[in-house]
């Protein structure tokens, strides 16, 4: 049998995801918005947080933990800040609203900080900071993880999530600065991807309760993720929990709901999005030019022996995204099979009906 996999057109994948969401009661416009953002994650290379997550979203919609027809509102607002109530809807909807409102406020008063309560998993934070940089602004976002996989440093009780954080900045070069990371050595999405593909995980990502390394992703529930930089990563994840969770009246600590295991409860996921206009600091268009000069200095640094040339977070993303928009996305065989299975469950056409994977 042939193992060659043809790419799927971006528009076709978007339409499939929107149709799958619609089969679970999501209204057409919301389904199209979420599908576009999910596929955009894959276009920019965030495969662990793109269409790979469709199974989880459909499960929460079917279980009642995610509201298919949310009334997303601004619950609290000042000239520079706001809190959005996501009404337990798909997280992409409330985060997109937060991003747009933050940008609007930054244009008006120099800075916009918009928190989210009663949200849900919303894909990679890069989706909610890259637009700021493309508009000449700086972006900043963080979230309380959608499940607790980390104990407090030195402890064993799972009370902290991967708590991601992202930054963006404009540059006169082809790519804006976009930095998106979990505060753990690896994101849980990467481990789930390895599990789906039947591959082991490297040592140093997880340890068991005996402190020994875990490398079998199927045993992930037997241990916990490690924070980046030990106590430093732990402190950073706590700070994010305070800003994205407690400050917004959202979950943090023991009241965080595992959105994969529990499909019926509200997760009350907390996030925030920030936009900053350099003009408010008197820089106007100078920021992007200075940033580009600094980035050029970084790239020009002589590499260590055996190392690739220095890169800046975000380098190459624009060209890669344009190529994928034109040629389509080549998804791995395990994900293609899963999407076909989801299509069958939803009673819609299989997106990869012609696959012959031996």
TrEMBL record:
<dbReference type="Pfam" id="PF02615">
    <property type="entry name" value="Ldh_2"/>
</dbReference>
<comment type="similarity">
    <text>Belongs to the LDH2/MDH2 oxidoreductase family.</text>
</comment>
<dbReference type="InterPro" id="IPR043143">
    <property type="entry name" value="Mal/L-sulf/L-lact_DH-like_NADP"/>
</dbReference>
<dbReference type="InterPro" id="IPR036111">
    <property type="entry name" value="Mal/L-sulfo/L-lacto_DH-like_sf"/>
</dbReference>
<dbReference type="InterPro" id="IPR003767">
    <property type="entry name" value="Malate/L-lactate_DH-like"/>
</dbReference>
<dbReference type="InterPro" id="IPR043144">
    <property type="entry name" value="Mal/L-sulf/L-lact_DH-like_ah"/>
</dbReference>
<keyword id="KW-0560">Oxidoreductase</keyword>
<protein>
    <submittedName>
        <fullName>Ldh family oxidoreductase</fullName>
    </submittedName>
</protein>
